[in-house]
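Wait, can you check?
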Amino acid sequence: MSTTERRTPHQVTFAVLTTGVIAFALLQSLVTPVLPTLEVALGTDQSDVTWVLTAYLLSASISTPILGRLGDMTGKKRMFVLALSALALGCLLAALATNLTVMIVARVVQGIGGGVLPLAFGIIRDEFPREKVAGAVGAISALIAVGAGVGLVVAGPIVNALGYHWLFWLPLVVLVAAALAAQFLVPESPVRTSGAINWPAAFLLSAWLVALLLAVSQAPSWGWTSVSVVGLLVAAVVLAAVWILVESRSAQPLIDMRMMRVRAVWTTNLVALLFGVAMYAAFAFLPQFLQTPSAAGYGFGSSVTASGLLLLPQTIASFVLGLVSGRLAQRVGSKTVLVLGTLVAAAGYLGFALAHGSQGQVLVASTVMGAGFGLAFAAMSNLIVAAVEPAQTGVASGMNANIRTIGGSLGAAVMASVVTAHAGPSGLPSESGYTNGFLMLTGALVLAGLAALLIPGVARDPRTHIEPDVQLRHPEAALVAGGTLVGDDPE
């Protein structure tokens, strides 16, 4: 790495990273509130148009850990630019799409960009001053929730003013600028891990993820007890077991199973799974609730734009608390902040389940949810980054993001089944469906809080931490990583 490259101020690097992450987060949610518009424009039906979401989810789930691993091996900046380029290419295809097939292909290409988040974490860990790492990781993490929330807010105005094509033209401009800035301004990572991609393991990972996510995403329409869904779930379990066996015996695993067994890693991943169940289900069903005609006995008949504006305070709360989370973690520890975030979010979900008769009540509940999102996302990411070797940052944080996505898919599918279990006189879901659904999500967050209590009480510096068992096997690793371990959590 050249001296000039190393002199790039970390503030500049951070600005480039945040631009790319925000664009990725927006693409996760921009299409959700306008699926009915896409259904008409692409000449398809309600069942098939959901593949616009499912295809993106499947692609991102497969690509995220692979790009994280490639970043650790070949350079995080290089893979970050590649991920942004894939997002941009996918946006171009989607903007030009005139039928569902092309749109689905475009969303698959966009999903390849899912690696931006773990790659951004890795670059931060490698390049930032030690005392800035926790705050930067927290801010980037909060931007995922913020970007998803902003997508719900701006989708309606963009479609009304410019048409649905601009849901992709506008992010395309941002992504091209971010990719160019990353190429010329972000220094390449000095931390590399040796080896090669374990392609059989990558294939098995892809296979069980596709089987699982396809089953849970289609279960509400196919039926949870249908032969197709049960067969896919059984296949997912078998393939996952074979994948774990292959990874455990591999000299160069895609996902190091020893790393996944580290207590700080598996407990934080369990929290991520449960948190994903609750968060993505809320993103999908809160706008739907708000847009339900009041003649159904609930809802407010809001337009896409109006429902997005009602959720704007949630987005603001996520961002503000995400920024606060890193500083708070330095005082009380990331574990404590994570527990606090899950309980705050659970309070918001419970409030919505029990009181949603007015827009003011929904506003308060969703804002409390957003505050919990911001606190928990940032703390979760810091715990993962602190728990692994620097060379494993990309793949570990990528798997954590992946597990959260899997949780989101599970949560959205189960929520759909609960909400639509009983229809009211108008044919729309009954109010009790939403109440029961959000009570279920509240329970998921309470379980997440309990799981967070299992996380070890001592987290280390996210730039220098090497797990004790790694030090015993490779005593030189501590020197490579930077030396001493420092306490982050005073417990």
Observations:
- The CA atoms of residues 90 and 106 lie 5 Å apart.
